[in-house]
Design a protein that fits this description.
Elements lengths: L10 H14 L11 E4 L4 H13 L4 E5 H6 L10 E5 L5 E13 L6 H7 L6 H19 L9 E11 L3
Parallel strand pairs: 1-3
Antiparallel strand pairs: 2-5, 3-4, 4-5
């Protein structure tokens, strides 16, 4: 099944959102590099569903394959670093700050992390099923075969700024 793709992120609008945040919070906007600008998910429905869970719900964690970061030319997150989450139209909607990071294999995820991701029924079983599907698609898109032994960045975050839009 072919899916519609997300629109490209709006880097100019993201830079403006970051400038607003940095002016209001110079004590915490200390990143030496501009924050990465990203979208959750790989198609509009998933992207907007996950972003809604961040903005209005329980999602305070995410997981990404190290191979995806490398393929996209993105640095791995660091505790205290910020990133800008965009919706499926590419509009920046929130600035997130990484609060906890761990790298490990798929099998190392625990029930608490699955719950903190806030997706589906928040169980470890649904987390594993959903992320297996997602990373299989990501591997196909990026030219690798996903396996449970690949390194994953397990990240917890806080929402520190929201766009007005």
């Amino acid at each position: 099944m072919s899916r519609t793709e997300n629109a490209p992120v709006d880097h100019d609008a993201a830079a403006a959102l970051w400038a607003e945040y940095a002016a209001a919070h110079p004590e915490t906007a200390l990143d030496t590099e501009p924050p990465s600008v990203e979208q959750f998910g790989d198609h509009p429905e998933l992207t907007d569903e996950l972003l809604d869970l961040v903005l209005n719900g329980p999602k305070r964690a995410t997981a990404g394959l190290v191979a995806e970061y490398l393929a996209d030319g993105q640095p791995l997150p660091r505790v205290g670093s910020h990133w800008i989450a965009c919706d499926s139209t590419g509009a920046p909607r929130a600035i997130l700050r990484s609060t906890e990071l761990r790298i490990g294999p798929f099998t190392s995820v625990d029930e608490r992390f699955a719950y903190d991701e806030g997706e589906d029924d928040r169980t470890l079983e649904s987390w594993r099923a959903g992320h297996s599907r997602y990373w299989t698609r990501a591997g196909e898109r990026l030219g690798f075969t996903w396996t449970e032994h690949m390194d994953i960045v397990f990240e917890r975050f806080d929402v520190v700024w929201r766009s007005e839009g």
